[in-house]
Amino acid sequence: MNHILPLSQWLSKSRPDDTVIAWLGDHTWTLGQLRYDVALLVDDLQGQQDEERWALCFENSYLFIVALLATLSAGKTPVIPGHCRVSLLEEQRSLFHGVLSDQALDWHGVLRVVSSANTSAPEATVLPTITPSRCIELYTSGSTGQPKRVIKSIAALDKEAALLADRFGGQLSGCRVVASVVPQHLYGLTFRIFLPLALGMPLHAAMLYYAEQLAALDHQHRYLFVSSPAFLKRLDHKLTPPPVKVILSAGGMLSWQHVLDTQRWFGVWPDEIYGSTETGILGWRHRHQDMIPWLPFPGVRITPEDDAFRVFSPLIAQQEGLLLDDILQLEDNGLFHLVGRHGRVVKIEEKRISLSEVERRLMALEGIRDAAALPVTRGGRQGIGAVLVLEEPLRRMWQQTSGKKLELSWRRALLPWLEPVAIPRYWRIVDEIPVNSMNKRVYAQLQETFHESP
């Protein structure tokens, strides 16, 4: 495996000019071309003295890298809004002064469309040094739905890539990187951009949306597949899998059944990553059986604090650490299990109901493949609604019997485990639980399934 490079050296002469940075179809971009493209955009940005904060909205990951390095080199602040939707950019225009994109967005502010010259300069342009203290701003939806700013220093992102390289680098020699996650969020930014550039691995400039795109990859190469549980749940096992050497999954819990399904198709057991935008990576696990605990990354320490947990990490700038939203079960050897989330507790008839616990009990019932629980209000009275994904035999039974007998059997099966008010009163069956690009469940969309009368 190549020497690990920090961001400040991505454009250095430590690698040959013809090093492949990215590819899309039959087209490739080299390190020499990247240097030239960055230099051209730096010249342009330095001429735009009034615009200091630039939102990066890209589908092409190579052009995203160009924009990221150019904004930092030009002394500007790259802002990653977490999406490329014009309507939201208009709402959030106070967060940045201009937009860099690979598309001609219908944006009513300053827009610079970034493209590649597809050539190298005769002589390498000397660019300003990017210091490790420089920062990238990311925005997440936050618990309230309002944009929440998370500031990440280049030093912290370099450190995160180094931790990943130390853990997985030995398995990645000769691999190319493909992904079903966008670089608009920290997971995609770290695993799809920082890790391959730190290790000198070619990366796919496009995001994979469908299993057919994954199966169509050139079988002459081997791949690191950066994925999410949502994508792995939708694998089409009738297709021929590509030669994937390593699978990384993050952004949500991967059920044991989907771990097995993934291994059967690829012939590779997935590695799971636990963390958040605020904390960075915290733990990983490689399961050959179900209840395997998570192993913290080096330097990560988790301590109980009242009914919560505080985490300390070399990736967390705050000396006091950060409180986690997740509920953990700690083992004496430092390993841990994920139990649920604090934010998923509702109060019904003076009883505190854990929606995570309701979901866990539903998932334990035979024939239920996935489940989401949420509060539903009808006639001024609140109850629990359950949205289920069923195995095919049970789904046919649901359709043939109108579902009432199954609902009754589910309620009876849950009675030994849940308070009566925690047992779902409203039921919906769907093909899959909707998730957004961050692999977070779209609860507003789930609520809509209950708008009609039961």
Features:
Rossmann fold; 6-stranded mixed β-sheet; GMP Synthetase, Chain A, domain 3; alpha/beta; 27% helix; 12 helices; 454 residues
What is the fold's blueprint, element by element?
Layout: E1 20-24, E2 27-30, H1 31-46, E3 53-57, H2 61-73, E4 77-80, H3 86-91, E5 98-101, E6 110-113, E7 135-140, E8 148-153, H4 154-168, E9 175-179, H5 186-199, E10 203-204, H6 211-215, E11 222-227, H7 229-233, E12 244-249, H8 256-266, E13 271-276, E14 280-286, E15 295-296, E16 301-305, E17 308-312, E18 322-323, E19 326-330, E20 336-341, E21 345-348, E22 351-354, H9 355-363, E23 368-378, E24 381-390, H10 392-401, H11 404-414, E25 426-429, H12 443-448
Parallel strand pairs: 1-10, 3-4, 3-5, 4-7, 5-6, 9-11, 11-12, 12-13, 24-25
Antiparallel strand pairs: 1-2, 7-8, 13-14, 14-15, 16-17, 17-18, 19-20, 21-22, 23-24
Structure overview:
Helix 2 links the parallel strand 3 (53-57) and strand 4 (77-80). The strands form seven sheets. A six-stranded mixed beta sheet has the order 6-5-3-4-7-8. Strands 9-11-12-13-14-15 form a six-stranded mixed beta sheet. Strands 2-1-10 form a three-stranded mixed beta sheet. The chain has helices at 31-46, 61-73, 86-91, 154-168, 186-199, 211-215, 229-233, 256-266, 355-363, 392-401, 404-414, 443-448; strands spanning 20-24, 27-30, 53-57, 77-80, 98-101, 110-113, 135-140, 148-153, 175-179, 203-204, 222-227, 244-249, 271-276, 280-286, 295-296, 301-305, 308-312, 322-323, 326-330, 336-341, 345-348, 351-354, 368-378, 381-390, 426-429. It folds into three domains: 1-167, ANL, N-terminal domain (Rossmann fold, 3-Layer(aba) Sandwich); 208-341, Rossmann fold (3-Layer(aba) Sandwich), CATH 3.40.50.12780; 345-448, ANL, C-terminal domain (GMP Synthetase, Chain A, domain 3, 2-Layer Sandwich). It is built from twelve helices and 25 strands. It is globular. The mean pLDDT is 90. The chain starts with 19 loop residues before the first strand and ends in a 6-residue tail after the last helix. It is α/β, with parallel strands linked by helices.
